Amino acid sequence: MTSSSDIAQPRRHARVDAADMLRGFAVMAIILLHSIEHFNFYSFPDTAGQSSFLNFCDKAIWDGLFFVFGGKAYAIFAMLFGFSFFIQHDNQRMRGKDFRLRFCWRLILLFIIGNFNACFFTGEILVMYSLVGFVLVLTCRFTTKWIVAIATICLLQPTCIYQIIRAICSPDYVIPQIESGPFWEATFAMQTAGDFWGTVKVNLWEGQLASLAWAWEHGRIFQTAGLFMMGMLIGRQGWLLRDKLHYWGRALAIALVCFFPLYGLNNMPGPEYIANPNILTPLKILISSLANLAFMVIIVSGLLYGYYNTARLGKTLGMLIPYGKMSMTNYVTQGIIGSFLFYNWGLHLQLGITASEGVGILIFLLQYMFCRFWVGRHNHGPLEYIWKKATWI
Question: How many whole angstroms separate alpha carbon 313 and alpha carbon 304?
Answer without folding.
Answer: 10
